[in-house]
Amino acid sequence: MQELLDQLIRYARGMWRYRWMMMAVIWLVCIIGWAAVLRMPDVYQASARVHVDTQSMLRPLLRGLAVDSGAVERVGLMTRTLLSNPNLEQLARMTDLDLRAENPQQMEDLISGLRSKITIESTRNENLYTISYTDSDRNLAKRVVQSLLTIFVENTLGQGRADTDAAQDFIDEQIKQYEVRLRQAEDRLAEFKREHVGMMPGEGQDYYKRLESALAELQQARLQLRELENRLAAQQRQLQDFQEQSSDFTLYGSGESPELAALDGRIRSLEQQLDDLLLRYTDKHPDVIEIRTLISKLERERARIKPAAADSGQQANPVYQQLKIMIGETESQIAGLEVRVSEYEERVARLREMIDTIPKVEAELARLNRDYNVNKANYEELLERREAAKLSKQADISADDVKFRVVDPPRVPLEPSGPPRIMLMSIVLAGAFGIGGALGFLIYQIRPTFEDARLLKELTGHPVFGSVCMVYTDEYLKKRRLALAGLAVATLGLLCVYGLVVTAEMLNLNLLRA
Protein backbone atom coordinates (compact mmCIF):
# COMPACT_ATOMS: atom_id res chain seq x y z
CA MET A 1 0.00 0.00 0.00
CA GLN A 2 2.84 2.40 0.85
CA GLU A 3 4.55 1.65 -2.48
CA LEU A 4 1.32 2.48 -4.35
CA LEU A 5 0.96 5.73 -2.42
CA ASP A 6 4.58 6.66 -3.17
CA GLN A 7 4.06 5.94 -6.84
CA LEU A 8 0.93 8.13 -6.97
CA ILE A 9 2.80 10.96 -5.26
CA ARG A 10 5.64 10.58 -7.76
CA TYR A 11 3.15 10.76 -10.66
CA ALA A 12 1.53 13.86 -9.16
CA ARG A 13 4.90 15.60 -8.77
CA GLY A 14 5.85 14.72 -12.32
CA MET A 15 2.55 16.03 -13.72
CA TRP A 16 2.87 19.21 -11.64
CA ARG A 17 5.85 20.23 -13.79
CA TYR A 18 3.47 20.63 -16.74
CA ARG A 19 0.66 22.40 -14.86
CA TRP A 20 0.54 25.43 -17.16
CA MET A 21 0.25 23.26 -20.24
CA MET A 22 -2.52 21.29 -18.52
CA MET A 23 -4.36 24.48 -17.56
CA ALA A 24 -4.11 25.80 -21.13
CA VAL A 25 -5.62 22.57 -22.48
CA ILE A 26 -8.42 22.70 -19.88
CA TRP A 27 -9.29 26.28 -20.87
CA LEU A 28 -9.22 25.40 -24.55
CA VAL A 29 -11.45 22.34 -24.16
CA CYS A 30 -13.92 24.24 -21.97
CA ILE A 31 -14.22 27.17 -24.37
CA ILE A 32 -14.72 24.93 -27.40
CA GLY A 33 -17.14 22.63 -25.58
CA TRP A 34 -19.23 25.39 -24.04
CA ALA A 35 -19.44 27.22 -27.34
CA ALA A 36 -20.63 24.01 -29.04
CA VAL A 37 -23.26 23.45 -26.30
CA LEU A 38 -24.55 27.01 -26.55
CA ARG A 39 -24.83 26.73 -30.34
CA MET A 40 -27.01 23.62 -30.09
CA PRO A 41 -30.53 24.48 -31.26
CA ASP A 42 -33.55 24.16 -28.98
CA VAL A 43 -35.68 21.08 -29.53
CA TYR A 44 -39.37 20.57 -28.84
CA GLN A 45 -41.08 17.32 -27.95
CA ALA A 46 -44.59 16.71 -29.24
CA SER A 47 -46.57 13.85 -27.67
CA ALA A 48 -49.98 12.21 -27.73
CA ARG A 49 -51.62 9.49 -25.66
CA VAL A 50 -54.10 6.92 -26.89
CA HIS A 51 -55.99 4.21 -25.02
CA VAL A 52 -56.62 0.88 -26.73
CA ASP A 53 -59.63 -1.12 -25.52
CA THR A 54 -59.19 -4.79 -26.39
CA GLN A 55 -62.05 -6.13 -24.26
CA SER A 56 -64.92 -7.61 -26.27
CA MET A 57 -68.17 -9.17 -25.01
CA LEU A 58 -67.81 -12.16 -27.36
CA ARG A 59 -64.36 -13.13 -26.13
CA PRO A 60 -65.46 -14.70 -22.80
CA LEU A 61 -68.35 -16.48 -24.56
CA LEU A 62 -66.16 -18.01 -27.27
CA ARG A 63 -63.28 -18.96 -24.98
CA GLY A 64 -62.26 -22.52 -25.81
CA LEU A 65 -64.36 -22.62 -28.99
CA ALA A 66 -62.71 -20.04 -31.20
CA VAL A 67 -59.15 -18.91 -31.70
CA ASP A 68 -58.34 -15.72 -29.81
CA SER A 69 -57.90 -13.02 -32.41
CA GLY A 70 -54.96 -11.76 -30.35
CA ALA A 71 -56.06 -8.16 -30.13
CA VAL A 72 -53.60 -7.40 -27.35
CA GLU A 73 -50.77 -9.10 -29.19
CA ARG A 74 -51.74 -7.42 -32.44
CA VAL A 75 -51.67 -3.98 -30.85
CA GLY A 76 -48.35 -4.80 -29.20
CA LEU A 77 -46.92 -5.97 -32.53
CA MET A 78 -48.10 -2.80 -34.20
CA THR A 79 -46.34 -0.67 -31.59
CA ARG A 80 -43.12 -2.63 -32.18
CA THR A 81 -43.39 -2.38 -35.98
CA LEU A 82 -44.63 1.20 -36.09
CA LEU A 83 -41.09 2.37 -36.77
CA SER A 84 -40.55 0.01 -39.70
CA ASN A 85 -39.34 1.44 -43.00
CA PRO A 86 -42.72 1.25 -44.81
CA ASN A 87 -44.50 3.08 -41.98
CA LEU A 88 -41.78 5.72 -41.76
CA GLU A 89 -41.90 6.25 -45.53
CA GLN A 90 -45.65 6.73 -45.26
CA LEU A 91 -45.06 9.16 -42.40
CA ALA A 92 -42.58 11.15 -44.51
CA ARG A 93 -45.14 11.43 -47.32
CA MET A 94 -47.92 12.53 -44.94
CA THR A 95 -45.76 15.30 -43.41
CA ASP A 96 -44.09 16.35 -46.73
CA LEU A 97 -40.68 15.45 -45.32
CA ASP A 98 -40.03 13.33 -48.40
CA LEU A 99 -39.61 16.56 -50.38
CA ARG A 100 -36.30 17.12 -48.60
CA ALA A 101 -34.86 13.90 -50.03
CA GLU A 102 -33.51 14.22 -53.56
CA ASN A 103 -32.00 10.72 -53.84
CA PRO A 104 -32.36 7.29 -52.17
CA GLN A 105 -29.43 7.91 -49.82
CA GLN A 106 -31.01 11.10 -48.47
CA MET A 107 -34.28 9.22 -48.05
CA GLU A 108 -32.50 6.57 -45.99
CA ASP A 109 -30.90 9.28 -43.85
CA LEU A 110 -34.31 10.92 -43.38
CA ILE A 111 -35.90 7.65 -42.25
CA SER A 112 -33.03 6.97 -39.84
CA GLY A 113 -33.41 10.46 -38.38
CA LEU A 114 -37.15 9.97 -37.89
CA ARG A 115 -36.60 6.61 -36.18
CA SER A 116 -34.07 8.09 -33.74
CA LYS A 117 -36.40 10.94 -32.74
CA ILE A 118 -39.58 8.88 -32.21
CA THR A 119 -40.30 7.16 -28.89
CA ILE A 120 -43.23 4.87 -28.05
CA GLU A 121 -44.00 4.09 -24.41
CA SER A 122 -46.74 1.80 -23.13
CA THR A 123 -48.32 0.70 -19.88
CA ARG A 124 -49.43 -2.85 -20.60
CA ASN A 125 -51.77 -3.12 -17.64
CA GLU A 126 -53.80 -0.11 -18.77
CA ASN A 127 -53.20 -0.39 -22.56
CA LEU A 128 -52.19 3.27 -22.63
CA TYR A 129 -49.65 4.25 -25.31
CA THR A 130 -47.65 7.49 -25.52
CA ILE A 131 -46.15 8.57 -28.87
CA SER A 132 -43.47 11.28 -28.81
CA TYR A 133 -41.35 13.04 -31.40
CA THR A 134 -38.53 15.54 -30.87
CA ASP A 135 -37.55 18.23 -33.40
CA SER A 136 -36.37 21.81 -33.53
CA ASP A 137 -39.56 22.80 -35.44
CA ARG A 138 -42.60 22.86 -33.12
CA ASN A 139 -45.18 22.59 -35.90
CA LEU A 140 -43.35 19.74 -37.62
CA ALA A 141 -43.13 17.83 -34.36
CA LYS A 142 -46.90 18.13 -33.90
CA ARG A 143 -47.65 17.01 -37.48
CA VAL A 144 -45.39 14.00 -37.13
CA VAL A 145 -47.12 12.85 -33.94
CA GLN A 146 -50.56 13.32 -35.51
CA SER A 147 -49.54 11.30 -38.55
CA LEU A 148 -48.04 8.53 -36.39
CA LEU A 149 -51.29 8.33 -34.45
CA THR A 150 -53.27 7.97 -37.68
CA ILE A 151 -50.97 5.24 -38.98
CA PHE A 152 -51.15 3.40 -35.67
CA VAL A 153 -54.95 3.31 -35.60
CA GLU A 154 -55.55 2.50 -39.28
CA ASN A 155 -52.91 -0.21 -39.56
CA THR A 156 -54.03 -1.95 -36.37
CA LEU A 157 -57.68 -2.11 -37.46
CA GLY A 158 -56.86 -3.22 -40.99
CA GLN A 159 -54.32 -5.77 -39.92
CA GLY A 160 -56.87 -7.81 -37.98
CA ARG A 161 -59.05 -8.49 -41.03
CA ALA A 162 -56.05 -9.21 -43.26
CA ASP A 163 -54.47 -11.53 -40.70
CA THR A 164 -57.70 -13.53 -40.33
CA ASP A 165 -58.09 -14.09 -44.08
CA ALA A 166 -54.41 -14.90 -44.51
CA ALA A 167 -54.52 -17.35 -41.62
CA GLN A 168 -57.59 -19.07 -43.08
CA ASP A 169 -55.97 -19.48 -46.49
CA PHE A 170 -52.72 -20.66 -44.96
CA ILE A 171 -54.42 -23.32 -42.84
CA ASP A 172 -56.39 -24.65 -45.84
CA GLU A 173 -53.22 -24.92 -47.90
CA GLN A 174 -51.34 -26.64 -45.10
CA ILE A 175 -54.14 -29.17 -44.59
CA LYS A 176 -53.93 -30.20 -48.24
CA GLN A 177 -50.17 -30.62 -48.00
CA TYR A 178 -50.34 -32.65 -44.81
CA GLU A 179 -52.98 -34.94 -46.29
CA VAL A 180 -50.52 -35.88 -49.02
CA ARG A 181 -47.65 -36.24 -46.53
CA LEU A 182 -49.72 -38.39 -44.18
CA ARG A 183 -50.78 -40.72 -46.99
CA GLN A 184 -47.20 -41.08 -48.20
CA ALA A 185 -45.93 -41.75 -44.65
CA GLU A 186 -48.57 -44.48 -44.17
CA ASP A 187 -47.58 -46.18 -47.44
CA ARG A 188 -43.87 -46.08 -46.59
CA LEU A 189 -44.48 -47.52 -43.12
CA ALA A 190 -46.67 -50.38 -44.39
CA GLU A 191 -44.20 -51.28 -47.12
CA PHE A 192 -41.29 -51.27 -44.70
CA LYS A 193 -43.08 -53.60 -42.27
CA ARG A 194 -43.85 -56.06 -45.09
CA GLU A 195 -40.22 -56.14 -46.20
CA HIS A 196 -38.76 -56.70 -42.71
CA VAL A 197 -41.12 -59.19 -41.10
CA GLY A 198 -39.42 -60.87 -38.13
CA MET A 199 -36.95 -58.05 -37.56
CA MET A 200 -39.35 -55.63 -35.91
CA PRO A 201 -38.44 -54.62 -32.36
CA GLY A 202 -40.53 -55.85 -29.46
CA GLU A 203 -42.75 -53.71 -27.33
CA GLY A 204 -40.53 -50.97 -25.97
CA GLN A 205 -37.30 -52.86 -26.81
CA ASP A 206 -34.72 -52.06 -29.43
CA TYR A 207 -31.93 -54.32 -30.69
CA TYR A 208 -29.47 -53.60 -27.90
CA LYS A 209 -32.07 -54.12 -25.20
CA ARG A 210 -33.05 -57.45 -26.77
CA LEU A 211 -29.39 -58.51 -26.95
CA GLU A 212 -28.81 -57.43 -23.38
CA SER A 213 -31.91 -59.35 -22.25
CA ALA A 214 -30.77 -62.49 -24.15
CA LEU A 215 -27.28 -62.27 -22.63
CA ALA A 216 -28.78 -61.87 -19.16
CA GLU A 217 -31.02 -64.92 -19.66
CA LEU A 218 -28.05 -66.94 -20.98
CA GLN A 219 -25.91 -65.96 -18.02
CA GLN A 220 -28.72 -66.84 -15.60
CA ALA A 221 -29.24 -70.25 -17.24
CA ARG A 222 -25.50 -70.99 -17.16
CA LEU A 223 -25.39 -70.04 -13.51
CA GLN A 224 -28.29 -72.39 -12.72
CA LEU A 225 -26.60 -75.15 -14.74
CA ARG A 226 -23.37 -74.75 -12.76
CA GLU A 227 -25.34 -74.87 -9.53
CA LEU A 228 -27.06 -78.11 -10.55
CA GLU A 229 -23.78 -79.64 -11.73
CA ASN A 230 -22.19 -78.81 -8.39
CA ARG A 231 -25.21 -80.26 -6.61
CA LEU A 232 -24.97 -83.46 -8.70
CA ALA A 233 -21.26 -83.79 -7.90
CA ALA A 234 -21.99 -83.37 -4.21
CA GLN A 235 -24.77 -86.00 -4.35
CA GLN A 236 -22.50 -88.43 -6.21
CA ARG A 237 -19.81 -87.95 -3.56
CA GLN A 238 -22.35 -88.68 -0.87
CA LEU A 239 -23.42 -91.84 -2.70
CA GLN A 240 -19.81 -92.97 -3.09
CA ASP A 241 -19.11 -92.36 0.59
CA PHE A 242 -22.22 -94.30 1.50
CA GLN A 243 -21.17 -97.18 -0.70
CA GLU A 244 -17.71 -97.30 0.88
CA GLN A 245 -19.18 -97.21 4.34
CA SER A 246 -21.62 -99.96 3.40
CA SER A 247 -18.76 -102.10 1.99
CA ASP A 248 -16.69 -101.69 5.14
CA PHE A 249 -19.62 -102.58 7.29
CA THR A 250 -20.30 -105.69 5.21
CA LEU A 251 -16.65 -106.69 5.42
CA TYR A 252 -16.13 -106.21 9.12
CA GLY A 253 -19.62 -106.27 10.49
CA SER A 254 -21.86 -109.09 11.49
CA GLY A 255 -23.61 -109.02 8.17
CA GLU A 256 -20.77 -110.84 6.25
CA SER A 257 -22.01 -113.63 3.92
CA PRO A 258 -21.02 -117.35 4.57
CA GLU A 259 -19.39 -117.71 1.14
CA LEU A 260 -17.07 -114.78 1.82
CA ALA A 261 -16.28 -116.19 5.26
CA ALA A 262 -15.31 -119.59 3.76
CA LEU A 263 -13.08 -117.94 1.17
CA ASP A 264 -11.42 -115.80 3.83
CA GLY A 265 -10.78 -118.95 5.92
CA ARG A 266 -9.16 -120.82 3.01
CA ILE A 267 -7.04 -117.80 2.14
CA ARG A 268 -5.77 -117.48 5.73
CA SER A 269 -4.98 -121.23 5.84
CA LEU A 270 -3.06 -121.07 2.56
CA GLU A 271 -1.16 -117.99 3.71
CA GLN A 272 -0.10 -119.89 6.89
CA GLN A 273 1.10 -122.83 4.77
CA LEU A 274 2.99 -120.42 2.53
CA ASP A 275 4.77 -118.95 5.54
CA ASP A 276 5.88 -122.42 6.69
CA LEU A 277 7.18 -123.31 3.20
CA LEU A 278 9.10 -120.05 2.90
CA LEU A 279 10.95 -120.93 6.07
CA ARG A 280 12.29 -124.05 4.36
CA TYR A 281 12.33 -123.25 0.62
CA THR A 282 12.84 -120.31 -1.73
CA ASP A 283 10.26 -118.44 -3.79
CA LYS A 284 10.97 -120.64 -6.83
CA HIS A 285 9.99 -123.84 -5.11
CA PRO A 286 7.05 -125.55 -6.93
CA ASP A 287 4.94 -125.83 -3.79
CA VAL A 288 5.42 -122.14 -3.01
CA ILE A 289 4.44 -121.17 -6.55
CA GLU A 290 1.38 -123.44 -6.49
CA ILE A 291 0.14 -122.07 -3.15
CA ARG A 292 0.57 -118.45 -4.30
CA THR A 293 -1.35 -119.20 -7.51
CA LEU A 294 -4.16 -120.73 -5.48
CA ILE A 295 -4.25 -117.71 -3.14
CA SER A 296 -4.51 -115.33 -6.12
CA LYS A 297 -7.48 -117.28 -7.54
CA LEU A 298 -9.26 -117.22 -4.19
CA GLU A 299 -8.69 -113.42 -3.78
CA ARG A 300 -10.11 -112.78 -7.27
CA GLU A 301 -13.11 -114.87 -6.42
CA ARG A 302 -13.54 -112.98 -3.17
CA ALA A 303 -13.32 -109.58 -4.98
CA ARG A 304 -16.02 -110.78 -7.42
CA ILE A 305 -18.39 -111.92 -4.72
CA LYS A 306 -17.88 -108.91 -2.36
CA PRO A 307 -19.47 -106.04 -4.52
CA ALA A 308 -22.50 -108.18 -5.29
CA ALA A 309 -23.03 -108.78 -1.63
CA ALA A 310 -22.51 -105.09 -0.85
CA ASP A 311 -24.93 -104.01 -3.56
CA SER A 312 -27.58 -106.38 -2.32
CA GLY A 313 -27.29 -104.80 1.11
CA GLN A 314 -27.30 -101.26 -0.24
CA GLN A 315 -30.36 -101.81 -2.40
CA ALA A 316 -32.38 -102.48 0.71
CA ASN A 317 -31.15 -99.25 2.43
CA PRO A 318 -33.70 -96.26 2.21
CA VAL A 319 -30.88 -93.67 2.38
CA TYR A 320 -29.28 -95.23 -0.66
CA GLN A 321 -32.61 -95.18 -2.49
CA GLN A 322 -33.18 -91.48 -1.61
CA LEU A 323 -29.72 -90.51 -2.89
CA LYS A 324 -30.37 -92.34 -6.16
CA ILE A 325 -33.70 -90.50 -6.59
CA MET A 326 -32.10 -87.13 -5.90
CA ILE A 327 -29.31 -87.82 -8.38
CA GLY A 328 -31.87 -88.75 -11.02
CA GLU A 329 -33.89 -85.57 -10.48
CA THR A 330 -30.74 -83.44 -10.63
CA GLU A 331 -29.62 -85.12 -13.86
CA SER A 332 -33.08 -84.46 -15.34
CA GLN A 333 -32.93 -80.78 -14.39
CA ILE A 334 -29.41 -80.51 -15.82
CA ALA A 335 -30.62 -81.97 -19.12
CA GLY A 336 -33.45 -79.41 -19.29
CA LEU A 337 -31.12 -76.54 -18.48
CA GLU A 338 -28.63 -77.70 -21.08
CA VAL A 339 -31.40 -77.47 -23.68
CA ARG A 340 -32.32 -74.00 -22.43
CA VAL A 341 -28.68 -72.82 -22.46
CA SER A 342 -28.30 -74.13 -25.99
CA GLU A 343 -31.41 -72.23 -27.07
CA TYR A 344 -30.18 -69.00 -25.44
CA GLU A 345 -26.76 -69.40 -27.05
CA GLU A 346 -28.37 -69.81 -30.47
CA ARG A 347 -30.55 -66.73 -29.84
CA VAL A 348 -27.54 -64.62 -28.82
CA ALA A 349 -25.60 -65.88 -31.81
CA ARG A 350 -28.44 -64.94 -34.17
CA LEU A 351 -28.65 -61.47 -32.65
CA ARG A 352 -24.91 -60.98 -32.91
CA GLU A 353 -24.94 -62.10 -36.53
CA MET A 354 -27.53 -59.39 -37.25
CA ILE A 355 -25.68 -56.67 -35.33
CA ASP A 356 -25.41 -54.56 -38.50
CA THR A 357 -28.90 -55.28 -39.81
CA ILE A 358 -31.37 -55.07 -36.95
CA PRO A 359 -30.21 -51.66 -35.60
CA LYS A 360 -30.58 -50.20 -39.08
CA VAL A 361 -34.05 -51.69 -39.39
CA GLU A 362 -35.04 -50.36 -35.97
CA ALA A 363 -33.60 -46.92 -36.71
CA GLU A 364 -35.42 -46.74 -40.03
CA LEU A 365 -38.65 -47.93 -38.40
CA ALA A 366 -38.30 -45.31 -35.66
CA ARG A 367 -37.74 -42.62 -38.27
CA LEU A 368 -40.79 -43.71 -40.27
CA ASN A 369 -42.94 -43.84 -37.12
CA ARG A 370 -41.68 -40.42 -36.07
CA ASP A 371 -42.48 -38.89 -39.46
CA TYR A 372 -45.89 -40.52 -39.47
CA ASN A 373 -46.74 -39.35 -35.93
CA VAL A 374 -45.56 -35.81 -36.63
CA ASN A 375 -47.60 -35.57 -39.82
CA LYS A 376 -50.65 -37.09 -38.13
CA ALA A 377 -50.45 -34.76 -35.12
CA ASN A 378 -49.98 -31.69 -37.32
CA TYR A 379 -52.84 -32.74 -39.59
CA GLU A 380 -55.27 -33.22 -36.70
CA GLU A 381 -54.15 -29.97 -35.11
CA LEU A 382 -54.71 -28.09 -38.38
CA LEU A 383 -58.23 -29.49 -38.70
CA GLU A 384 -59.09 -28.22 -35.24
CA ARG A 385 -57.51 -24.85 -35.95
CA ARG A 386 -59.46 -24.47 -39.20
CA GLU A 387 -62.80 -24.90 -37.44
CA ALA A 388 -61.74 -22.49 -34.70
CA ALA A 389 -60.55 -19.97 -37.31
CA LYS A 390 -63.92 -20.06 -39.09
CA LEU A 391 -65.73 -19.33 -35.85
CA SER A 392 -63.24 -16.58 -34.98
CA LYS A 393 -63.73 -14.94 -38.37
CA GLN A 394 -67.48 -14.79 -37.87
CA ALA A 395 -66.93 -13.31 -34.41
CA ASP A 396 -64.56 -10.64 -35.78
CA ILE A 397 -67.09 -9.66 -38.43
CA SER A 398 -69.94 -9.34 -35.97
CA ALA A 399 -68.13 -7.06 -33.51
CA ASP A 400 -65.01 -4.86 -33.36
CA ASP A 401 -62.57 -6.28 -30.82
CA VAL A 402 -60.24 -3.25 -30.74
CA LYS A 403 -61.37 0.31 -29.97
CA PHE A 404 -59.17 3.41 -29.82
CA ARG A 405 -59.71 6.51 -27.69
CA VAL A 406 -57.34 9.48 -27.87
CA VAL A 407 -56.70 10.56 -24.28
CA ASP A 408 -54.35 13.48 -25.06
CA PRO A 409 -54.30 14.87 -28.61
CA PRO A 410 -50.93 15.86 -30.08
CA ARG A 411 -49.51 18.88 -28.29
CA VAL A 412 -46.18 20.72 -28.07
CA PRO A 413 -45.09 22.66 -24.95
CA LEU A 414 -44.00 26.29 -25.37
CA GLU A 415 -40.64 25.78 -23.71
CA PRO A 416 -38.08 23.52 -25.37
CA SER A 417 -37.42 20.08 -23.96
CA GLY A 418 -33.72 20.17 -24.70
CA PRO A 419 -30.88 19.99 -25.01
CA PRO A 420 -29.85 19.80 -21.30
CA ARG A 421 -27.20 22.47 -21.63
CA ILE A 422 -26.37 22.77 -17.91
CA MET A 423 -25.65 19.06 -17.65
CA LEU A 424 -23.65 19.11 -20.88
CA MET A 425 -21.61 22.10 -19.65
CA SER A 426 -20.82 20.24 -16.43
CA ILE A 427 -19.75 17.21 -18.46
CA VAL A 428 -17.52 19.46 -20.60
CA LEU A 429 -15.88 20.91 -17.48
CA ALA A 430 -15.23 17.47 -15.97
CA GLY A 431 -13.97 16.17 -19.31
CA ALA A 432 -11.63 19.13 -19.71
CA PHE A 433 -9.97 18.43 -16.36
CA GLY A 434 -9.71 14.76 -17.33
CA ILE A 435 -8.12 15.59 -20.69
CA GLY A 436 -5.68 18.03 -19.07
CA GLY A 437 -4.64 15.48 -16.45
CA ALA A 438 -4.24 12.77 -19.07
CA LEU A 439 -2.06 15.10 -21.18
CA GLY A 440 0.17 15.90 -18.20
CA PHE A 441 0.50 12.20 -17.34
CA LEU A 442 1.35 11.34 -20.95
CA ILE A 443 4.08 14.01 -21.14
CA TYR A 444 5.49 12.82 -17.81
CA GLN A 445 5.68 9.26 -19.16
CA ILE A 446 7.49 10.50 -22.26
CA ARG A 447 9.87 12.76 -20.33
CA PRO A 448 10.19 11.25 -16.84
CA THR A 449 12.18 12.87 -14.01
CA PHE A 450 13.74 11.52 -10.81
CA GLU A 451 12.74 13.14 -7.55
CA ASP A 452 15.35 11.49 -5.29
CA ALA A 453 18.47 9.32 -5.38
CA ARG A 454 16.65 6.21 -4.10
CA LEU A 455 14.31 6.16 -7.12
CA LEU A 456 17.27 6.62 -9.51
CA LYS A 457 19.07 3.69 -7.91
CA GLU A 458 15.99 1.44 -8.11
CA LEU A 459 15.35 2.19 -11.76
CA THR A 460 18.94 2.07 -13.05
CA GLY A 461 20.33 -0.63 -10.76
CA HIS A 462 23.55 1.38 -10.22
CA PRO A 463 24.67 2.99 -6.98
CA VAL A 464 24.35 6.74 -6.60
CA PHE A 465 27.51 8.27 -5.11
CA GLY A 466 25.97 11.62 -4.25
CA SER A 467 23.35 14.23 -4.97
CA VAL A 468 23.22 18.04 -5.07
CA CYS A 469 20.38 19.74 -3.23
CA MET A 470 18.67 22.76 -4.69
CA VAL A 471 18.98 25.98 -2.74
CA TYR A 472 15.93 28.21 -3.14
CA THR A 473 16.68 31.94 -3.16
CA ASP A 474 14.21 34.57 -2.07
CA GLU A 475 13.73 35.73 -5.64
CA TYR A 476 12.95 32.15 -6.78
CA LEU A 477 10.51 31.60 -3.95
CA LYS A 478 8.78 34.87 -4.85
CA LYS A 479 8.44 33.81 -8.48
CA ARG A 480 7.15 30.45 -7.37
CA ARG A 481 4.49 32.02 -5.17
CA LEU A 482 3.44 34.29 -8.02
CA ALA A 483 3.18 31.28 -10.35
CA LEU A 484 0.99 29.45 -7.85
CA ALA A 485 -1.20 32.49 -7.46
CA GLY A 486 -1.52 32.75 -11.23
CA LEU A 487 -2.51 29.10 -11.47
CA ALA A 488 -5.11 29.58 -8.73
CA VAL A 489 -6.46 32.67 -10.52
CA ALA A 490 -6.68 30.73 -13.80
CA THR A 491 -8.57 27.91 -12.11
CA LEU A 492 -10.87 30.30 -10.26
CA GLY A 493 -11.49 32.22 -13.46
CA LEU A 494 -12.46 29.02 -15.25
CA LEU A 495 -14.95 28.19 -12.52
CA CYS A 496 -16.33 31.74 -12.65
CA VAL A 497 -16.84 31.48 -16.40
CA TYR A 498 -18.60 28.14 -15.85
CA GLY A 499 -20.85 29.77 -13.24
CA LEU A 500 -21.67 32.68 -15.55
CA VAL A 501 -22.53 30.36 -18.44
CA VAL A 502 -24.76 28.18 -16.26
CA THR A 503 -26.46 31.26 -14.74
CA ALA A 504 -27.16 32.68 -18.19
CA GLU A 505 -28.71 29.40 -19.32
CA MET A 506 -30.94 29.25 -16.23
CA LEU A 507 -32.11 32.83 -16.78
CA ASN A 508 -32.90 31.98 -20.40
CA LEU A 509 -35.00 29.01 -19.30
CA ASN A 510 -36.88 31.14 -16.77
CA LEU A 511 -37.66 33.75 -19.44
CA LEU A 512 -39.05 31.05 -21.74
CA ARG A 513 -41.25 29.67 -18.97
CA ALA A 514 -42.53 33.15 -18.12
From TrEMBL:
Coiled coil: 168-280, 327-385
A Gene Ontology molecular function term of the record: protein tyrosine kinase activity
All residue ranges annotated as the Tyrosine-protein kinase G-rich domain in the record: 362-439
Regions crossing the membrane: 20-38, 422-444, 482-501
Any Gene Ontology CC annotation: plasma membrane
InterPro entries documented for this protein: Bact_polysacc_biosynth/exp, GNVR, XrtA_polysacc_chain
Keywords, ordered alphabetically: Coiled coil, Membrane, Transmembrane, Transmembrane helix
Signal peptide from the UniProt entry: none
Protein name in UniProt: Chain length-determining protein
Native species: Thiohalobacter thiocyanaticus
